[in-house]
User: Fold these one by one.
Assistant:
Number 1:
Amino acid sequence: MPHTARPAVIHLEGLGLTYPGPPPVTALRPCDLLIEHGEFVSIVGPSGSGKSSLLNVLGLLDNPTRGAYRLDGVDTSTVGDHQRAALRGRHIGFVFQSFHLLPHRTAQENVELALVYRRTPRRERRDRAARVLARVGLAHRAHALPTHLSGGERQRVAVARALVGEPSLLLCDEPTGNLDSETAASILDLLDQLHADGMTVLVITHDKDVARRGQRVITIRDGVLSEGRTILAGAPC
Amino acid sequence: MLSRRWRGTESSPASPGPAPARSRFAVRDLLAEAVAGILQRPARSVLTSLGTVLGVGAFIAVLGLTGTAAAQIDTRFNRLTATEVTVEDTGGRDADRVPLAFPEDADRRMARVNGVEAAGVYWKVRLPPGETVRSSPADGGDGAVAQTPVVAASSGVLSAAAPHFVQGRGWDAFHDTHDQSVAVIGSSTAARLGITTLRTQPAVFIGDHAFTVIGVFDDVQRMPDLLLSVVVPRSTAERTWGPPRDERARMLVSTELGAASQVADEAALALRPDHPEYLRAVPPPNPKALRDAVGGDLGQLFLLLSIVCLVIGAVGIANTTLVAVMERVGEIGLRRALGARARHITWQFLTESAALGLVGGVAGTSLGTAVVVGVSLHNAWTPVLAPLTLVSAPALGLATGLLAGLYPSWRASRIQPVEALRR
């Protein structure tokens, strides 16, 4: 469902990634990809297929070696390192397989951390964190330490942290990898809800059941992206 | 609704995209993060800063104690020693021929020198074999006091040494010039000789010579060895036993404050204008030089020790911070993903190690100050600590922490978020 008035959240043009050797390893073959606002897209592939490379490029954690990547209309190849950091912080909310919560901070403080690097006033930080925690159903656990939270609760905190900055893209890397199937389902339900509220969600996973939740399922294999039976290379999808 | 905000606020207008805002890390947040980083491992933080505590503590203690000791030296020297000049009779090349280079009117000659308050010649009398100091003329039985030194002194010595007489008085120029057989003795010597009162005009016998005791003193301001001696007039001693033999004579000069060096310069010429080389004047030691010497000897050793402590402290902080960096690779990756720049990571870890150093510095300053005060209290000294030292010591800890944090924080900033987040 394209919003013509706004640039696509993700726009890849002939993007490729080759790790310099020796011998050089091609992690991503040149590909095009367009993800509009409000989409729920899954990228599925076995390990070693180039998933992580794609995640790193999409998350601005790694630079592509060729092609262009526009995030919310900003050509990421033209901005400096410090601006990439800012883009990352403001436009992308990360959710990781291993949560990456700071163990000695409460859930609330972990969520507030996402606003530290953009000079949000402390009071506003607190309010927004509390709101987002309530949104993911953890208002009652706001002052618990991660060590006292269950796996599902931890991942909800992580989702809240990703959301608090009001990103245009929720980038989830194996969000259910460390969770049992029941908890995993509840997290995926949460992602569904967020999507229903208008959030752009991109889930990268090796699990086909998880991938099925997406409106679009993109398969990656040997560094080649394909959607359905279409190979996303050389031509926009 | 949240959804509206997600759709609306953060996206940028159409391409080519404008430069996005930079990531910022407010100082207050930086400090808060650093403090949180330190407090999450309190025991380790305490141990880490221990090296700095000891180093800075030693620094303060050394400077404080040397300062305190120097101040003690100052007060001792200021009033008395700084106004004391000793003139030694060396005899020059005629030492064998001239046993006593001081002229008879040495006291008066010296007193004429500007700045001199009193001056007198003295020497230790060598008694002939078998002659001792006794309280009675009888043979050396009960009253004999072996080894009581006899000092020949002109009246000026009594003025310069300023004995405090509990009974009687000292002699003056009259006794000096008229060969009076009188003596003054220290109160402890008097007690040993059985002299309790001067009403009975007691005498001490030195060899076969009787000396009437005319004064008993219990304290002197200069020449404390007088307290244990029998002091007789110079002229009497010279007549009875001849000029000094083993130890040559000296002159004790008390001067006005600040005049000592000048007096020392002029003394030899004033006393023996014909043979100034017979005499050598010794000015008082320069208290500043002495203080520097004290500060130099022990102080340098301990300063070195405190520097070693600081280096060990720095290595400790560096090591722990490095370990913490390795432990917190995931956190670093996360912060980068949340928009932190590499330099934000550097600052955070640098601030943490600097804060550890500062805490260690403050604790060390307190510890060092406590040591200085404690030692001063024990010795009844006045503790002296330069305010600048107290202010600079925590800064020293801070600098140690900063220095120690340089490498770990650089390492932290080099951690790639990709690697970190994979864990």
Number 2:
Amino acid sequence: MRFDSLIESVGRTPLVGLPRLSPSADVRIWAKLEDRNPTGSIKDRPALWMIEQAEKEGLLSPGCTILEPTSGNTGISLAMSARLKGYKLICVMPENTSEERRQLLRMYGAEIISSPAAGGSNEAVRVAKGLAAEHPDWIMLYQYGNPANWRSHYESTGPEILDDLPTVTHFVAGLGTTGTLMGVGRFLREHKPDVKIVAAEPRYGELVYGLRNVDEGFIPEIYDEAVLTTRYSVTSADALSRTRELLAAEGIFAGISTGCALHAAIGMARKAVADGEPADIVFVVADGGWKYLSTGAYEGTLVEAEDRLDGQLWA
Amino acid sequence: MAIEVRIPTILRTYTDGAKAVDASGATLEELIGDLEVRHPGIKARIVDDGKLRRFVNIYLNDEDVRFLGGLGTPISDGDTVTVLPAVAGG
């Protein structure tokens, strides 16, 4: 494969079977390896689509400043594109995100503004919206509300999956901005009306839910419940244990949110076996494990790893 | 029939700080009704106008009840119900 520049190489990631984790020859689990994108995560797709949409609309020109609330991967993807295209990037990031993400952002030349740990990404969104109001010349792409986020998956991730696996019956992905599930979900459903679209939502430590009241909760503007078949909440313990299982059984070294999605995918696979129905279940490997080494997720017992992860934003 | 209900930090003012409490009911609606009898005031923080509040998620054994039967979701002995506020990812 040959590309004119790194940006051109976004997408067209491998879909690999998991022969050891699949329960039978009729119920198979497949991993979409999004860590194979240029900056190592699925977020290269929405980041590129959002930037190019803003360029088309004349909102961005070289020298402009982009502002974005992000727990990390979207920021890193934007930072790479911004560096190549001549934009300045400011990321609003919760304090409780891994050191590797911060180092990568700084390397690409992005500025980081920290938001309080309590409340997680909700707080990052609130701080970024405040900054955007104070600096009308900054362009906030706003992944939570930007249709180019889900369109990137509707136009790239979804078609790739259908091309590689026309028999797909389930699509499982982590729920963050909801962009992956909205985009792939809409695309697949248009072509396979019976496909099941399953969200795996990370259940963090209590600190992340430390809002002052229930009305401060946050639902991304691009989220449409009707696209989903169902939605599971996956604990840190289950996500960690599946992340390690994926490496041990299939050799895939993935980030913790991948364990979260795999947990739901295996749940769907068990259900299909129990119902005696064949299934081809695709789940998303959103990124590799590299950026989480410092969290201690891969060392010691699961209980130790879970303790170390408590209060961290791991997806 | 006792069901374990996990309570998020922000609602523990109603449960004397307890992280998990027992309640009973054949449906989620009945369960929340019983929760209100045991911990007055909590229902209004979870349900508004006969519907789940927008920023509150309830999971029955880790599955979002909005995709099961909403407040009418049947509950059985041994189930676990988890209440959580909606938070962002990404």
